[in-house]
Amino acid sequence: MTQSDSNHPRDFQSLPLQKPLLKNLQDLGYEQLTEIQAMALPAIVAGRDVIGQAKTGSGKTVAFGLGLLHKLNVEQFRVQSLVLCPTRELADQVARELRKLARAIHNIKILTLCGGMPFGPQIGSLKHGAHIVVGTPGRIEDHLRKGNLDLKHVKTLVLDEADRMLDMGFQAVLDQILAELPKARQTLLFSATYPKTIDALASRVLSAPLKVEVAASH
Ligand code: ADP
Ligand code: MG
Protein backbone atom coordinates (compact mmCIF):
# COMPACT_ATOMS: atom_id res chain seq x y z
CA MET A 1 0.00 0.00 0.00
CA THR A 2 1.37 3.40 -0.88
CA GLN A 3 0.50 6.98 -0.18
CA SER A 4 -0.83 7.42 -3.71
CA ASP A 5 -3.57 4.81 -3.23
CA SER A 6 -6.73 6.63 -4.20
CA ASN A 7 -8.64 5.78 -1.03
CA HIS A 8 -6.02 7.38 1.21
CA PRO A 9 -5.87 11.13 1.67
CA ARG A 10 -2.62 12.77 0.58
CA ASP A 11 -2.78 16.11 2.31
CA PHE A 12 -4.01 17.36 5.67
CA GLN A 13 -6.44 19.86 4.15
CA SER A 14 -8.54 17.00 2.72
CA LEU A 15 -9.17 15.55 6.20
CA PRO A 16 -12.47 16.23 7.99
CA LEU A 17 -10.77 18.03 10.88
CA GLN A 18 -11.94 21.13 12.75
CA LYS A 19 -11.08 24.33 10.86
CA PRO A 20 -8.67 25.77 13.47
CA LEU A 21 -6.65 22.54 13.43
CA LEU A 22 -6.41 22.65 9.62
CA LYS A 23 -5.38 26.29 9.65
CA ASN A 24 -2.70 25.58 12.26
CA LEU A 25 -1.32 22.66 10.22
CA GLN A 26 -0.95 25.05 7.32
CA ASP A 27 0.88 27.54 9.55
CA LEU A 28 3.17 24.75 10.78
CA GLY A 29 4.01 23.85 7.18
CA TYR A 30 2.53 20.36 7.45
CA GLU A 31 1.17 19.61 3.98
CA GLN A 32 1.53 16.00 2.87
CA LEU A 33 0.61 13.13 5.14
CA THR A 34 3.22 10.51 5.89
CA GLU A 35 2.28 6.96 4.97
CA ILE A 36 1.19 5.91 8.46
CA GLN A 37 -0.85 9.13 8.79
CA ALA A 38 -2.57 8.51 5.45
CA MET A 39 -3.49 4.99 6.47
CA ALA A 40 -4.48 5.68 10.06
CA LEU A 41 -5.98 9.18 10.22
CA PRO A 42 -9.29 8.58 8.40
CA ALA A 43 -10.12 5.74 10.81
CA ILE A 44 -8.83 7.68 13.83
CA VAL A 45 -10.89 10.77 12.97
CA ALA A 46 -13.93 8.51 12.43
CA GLY A 47 -13.50 7.33 16.02
CA ARG A 48 -12.24 3.78 15.44
CA ASP A 49 -9.72 1.96 17.56
CA VAL A 50 -6.46 1.69 15.62
CA ILE A 51 -3.23 -0.25 15.94
CA GLY A 52 -0.49 1.55 14.07
CA GLN A 53 2.88 0.03 13.36
CA ALA A 54 5.61 2.05 11.68
CA LYS A 55 9.24 2.77 12.31
CA THR A 56 10.53 5.65 14.42
CA GLY A 57 10.29 9.03 12.76
CA SER A 58 7.30 8.15 10.59
CA GLY A 59 4.96 10.69 12.18
CA LYS A 60 2.93 8.61 14.60
CA THR A 61 2.52 11.48 17.09
CA VAL A 62 0.73 13.66 14.55
CA ALA A 63 -1.52 10.69 13.67
CA PHE A 64 -2.84 10.19 17.19
CA GLY A 65 -2.45 13.86 18.19
CA LEU A 66 -4.83 15.13 15.53
CA GLY A 67 -7.28 12.37 16.43
CA LEU A 68 -7.45 13.27 20.10
CA LEU A 69 -7.49 17.03 19.48
CA HIS A 70 -10.31 16.65 16.95
CA LYS A 71 -12.48 15.00 19.63
CA LEU A 72 -11.53 17.30 22.45
CA ASN A 73 -13.99 19.82 23.86
CA VAL A 74 -11.97 22.62 25.41
CA GLU A 75 -15.09 23.92 27.23
CA GLN A 76 -15.10 20.77 29.36
CA PHE A 77 -12.20 21.25 31.72
CA ARG A 78 -11.41 17.66 32.63
CA VAL A 79 -8.99 15.02 31.39
CA GLN A 80 -10.33 13.86 28.02
CA SER A 81 -7.18 12.25 26.62
CA LEU A 82 -4.50 10.13 28.23
CA VAL A 83 -1.25 9.38 26.38
CA LEU A 84 1.02 6.77 27.95
CA CYS A 85 4.69 6.68 26.92
CA PRO A 86 7.55 4.45 28.10
CA THR A 87 9.95 7.21 29.20
CA ARG A 88 9.99 10.81 30.38
CA GLU A 89 11.96 11.87 27.30
CA LEU A 90 9.32 10.41 24.98
CA ALA A 91 6.48 11.90 27.02
CA ASP A 92 8.12 15.34 26.83
CA GLN A 93 8.55 14.95 23.05
CA VAL A 94 4.91 13.96 22.63
CA ALA A 95 3.69 16.85 24.80
CA ARG A 96 5.80 19.28 22.77
CA GLU A 97 4.33 18.03 19.49
CA LEU A 98 0.77 18.11 20.93
CA ARG A 99 1.26 21.71 22.08
CA LYS A 100 2.32 22.63 18.53
CA LEU A 101 -0.70 20.89 17.03
CA ALA A 102 -3.02 22.45 19.63
CA ARG A 103 -1.81 26.05 19.22
CA ALA A 104 -5.10 27.04 17.59
CA ILE A 105 -7.17 25.81 20.55
CA HIS A 106 -7.28 28.56 23.14
CA ASN A 107 -6.92 27.74 26.82
CA ILE A 108 -6.07 24.11 26.21
CA LYS A 109 -4.11 22.56 29.05
CA ILE A 110 -1.68 19.73 28.39
CA LEU A 111 0.03 18.26 31.43
CA THR A 112 2.98 15.85 31.63
CA LEU A 113 3.19 13.47 34.58
CA CYS A 114 6.40 11.47 34.61
CA GLY A 115 8.46 9.53 37.10
CA GLY A 116 11.76 10.99 38.27
CA MET A 117 10.09 14.37 38.81
CA PRO A 118 8.97 15.77 42.18
CA PHE A 119 5.34 15.10 43.19
CA GLY A 120 4.53 18.52 44.62
CA PRO A 121 4.36 20.53 41.38
CA GLN A 122 2.48 17.69 39.66
CA ILE A 123 -0.16 17.65 42.39
CA GLY A 124 -0.42 21.44 42.16
CA SER A 125 -0.91 21.24 38.37
CA LEU A 126 -3.52 18.50 38.76
CA LYS A 127 -5.50 20.72 41.14
CA HIS A 128 -5.64 23.34 38.37
CA GLY A 129 -6.87 20.70 35.93
CA ALA A 130 -5.97 19.58 32.40
CA HIS A 131 -7.56 18.46 29.15
CA ILE A 132 -4.76 16.12 28.12
CA VAL A 133 -2.38 14.14 30.31
CA VAL A 134 0.82 12.70 28.85
CA GLY A 135 2.98 10.55 31.07
CA THR A 136 4.70 7.38 32.09
CA PRO A 137 2.59 4.49 33.47
CA GLY A 138 4.20 4.27 36.91
CA ARG A 139 3.63 7.91 37.83
CA ILE A 140 0.12 8.01 36.34
CA GLU A 141 -0.85 4.97 38.40
CA ASP A 142 0.68 6.55 41.48
CA HIS A 143 -1.48 9.69 41.07
CA LEU A 144 -4.56 7.53 40.46
CA ARG A 145 -3.96 5.50 43.60
CA LYS A 146 -3.49 8.65 45.67
CA GLY A 147 -6.72 10.15 44.32
CA ASN A 148 -4.98 13.05 42.54
CA LEU A 149 -6.16 12.15 39.06
CA ASP A 150 -9.63 11.44 37.66
CA LEU A 151 -9.70 9.53 34.38
CA LYS A 152 -13.46 8.84 34.32
CA HIS A 153 -14.03 11.25 31.42
CA VAL A 154 -11.26 10.06 29.12
CA LYS A 155 -12.46 9.82 25.51
CA THR A 156 -9.15 8.83 23.92
CA LEU A 157 -6.43 6.57 25.30
CA VAL A 158 -3.13 6.38 23.46
CA LEU A 159 -0.53 3.71 24.12
CA ASP A 160 2.55 5.13 22.43
CA GLU A 161 5.56 2.88 21.85
CA ALA A 162 3.54 0.04 23.35
CA ASP A 163 6.27 -2.48 22.50
CA ARG A 164 8.75 -0.61 24.69
CA MET A 165 6.26 -0.24 27.53
CA LEU A 166 5.82 -4.03 27.57
CA ASP A 167 9.60 -4.56 27.34
CA MET A 168 10.00 -2.34 30.38
CA GLY A 169 7.58 -4.47 32.40
CA PHE A 170 4.67 -2.02 32.52
CA GLN A 171 2.02 -4.67 31.80
CA ALA A 172 0.60 -4.88 35.35
CA VAL A 173 0.65 -1.11 35.82
CA LEU A 174 -1.10 -0.63 32.47
CA ASP A 175 -3.84 -2.99 33.65
CA GLN A 176 -4.30 -0.96 36.84
CA ILE A 177 -4.64 2.26 34.81
CA LEU A 178 -7.03 0.63 32.33
CA ALA A 179 -9.35 -0.33 35.17
CA GLU A 180 -9.85 3.39 35.91
CA LEU A 181 -10.83 4.34 32.35
CA PRO A 182 -14.32 4.35 30.86
CA LYS A 183 -15.05 1.27 28.73
CA ALA A 184 -16.61 3.46 26.05
CA ARG A 185 -13.58 5.23 24.68
CA GLN A 186 -11.31 5.28 21.66
CA THR A 187 -8.01 3.48 22.07
CA LEU A 188 -5.02 4.01 19.78
CA LEU A 189 -1.99 1.78 20.08
CA PHE A 190 1.27 2.66 18.35
CA SER A 191 4.40 0.62 18.13
CA ALA A 192 7.60 0.50 16.10
CA THR A 193 7.65 -3.31 16.20
CA TYR A 194 4.88 -5.86 16.58
CA PRO A 195 5.90 -8.69 18.90
CA LYS A 196 3.36 -11.38 19.94
CA THR A 197 2.89 -9.77 23.35
CA ILE A 198 1.33 -6.72 21.64
CA ASP A 199 -1.42 -8.92 20.19
CA ALA A 200 -2.39 -10.09 23.66
CA LEU A 201 -2.44 -6.53 25.00
CA ALA A 202 -4.35 -5.25 21.97
CA SER A 203 -7.04 -7.91 22.19
CA ARG A 204 -7.74 -6.94 25.80
CA VAL A 205 -7.55 -3.19 25.39
CA LEU A 206 -8.86 -2.35 21.91
CA SER A 207 -12.24 -2.99 20.41
CA ALA A 208 -12.50 -4.13 16.76
CA PRO A 209 -9.33 -2.24 15.88
CA LEU A 210 -8.16 -1.38 12.41
CA LYS A 211 -4.57 -2.54 12.06
CA VAL A 212 -2.34 -0.47 9.81
CA GLU A 213 1.25 -1.30 9.12
CA VAL A 214 3.96 0.49 7.19
CA ALA A 215 6.54 -2.08 6.12
CA ALA A 216 10.06 -1.45 7.39
CA SER A 217 11.46 -1.23 3.85
CA HIS A 218 9.67 2.08 3.25
P1 ADP B 1 7.33 8.66 15.39
O1 ADP B 1 6.49 8.79 16.63
O2 ADP B 1 6.68 7.82 14.35
O3 ADP B 1 8.72 8.18 15.69
P2 ADP B 1 7.14 11.53 15.28
O4 ADP B 1 5.68 11.61 15.46
O5 ADP B 1 7.99 11.83 16.45
O6 ADP B 1 7.52 10.08 14.72
O7 ADP B 1 7.51 12.46 14.02
C1 ADP B 1 8.84 12.67 13.60
C2 ADP B 1 9.01 14.09 13.06
O8 ADP B 1 8.30 14.26 11.83
C3 ADP B 1 8.51 15.16 13.99
O9 ADP B 1 9.49 16.15 14.08
C4 ADP B 1 7.26 15.70 13.32
O10 ADP B 1 7.08 17.06 13.61
C5 ADP B 1 7.54 15.46 11.85
N1 ADP B 1 6.32 15.22 11.04
C6 ADP B 1 5.34 14.34 11.33
N2 ADP B 1 4.41 14.30 10.37
C7 ADP B 1 4.79 15.19 9.43
C8 ADP B 1 4.24 15.61 8.17
N3 ADP B 1 3.12 15.08 7.69
N4 ADP B 1 4.91 16.54 7.46
C9 ADP B 1 6.05 17.06 7.94
N5 ADP B 1 6.64 16.70 9.11
C10 ADP B 1 6.03 15.78 9.86
MG1 MG C 1 6.67 8.31 18.54
From TrEMBL:
Domain DEAD-box RNA helicase Q as annotated: residue spans: 10-38
An MF annotation (GO) of this entry: hydrolase activity
Signal peptide: none
Superkingdom per UniProt: Bacteria
Domain annotation Helicase ATP-binding: ranges: 41-212
UniProt keywords, alphabetically: ATP-binding, Helicase, Hydrolase, Nucleotide-binding
Family to which this protein belongs: Belongs to the DEAD box helicase family.
The protein, known as: ATP-dependent RNA helicase DbpA
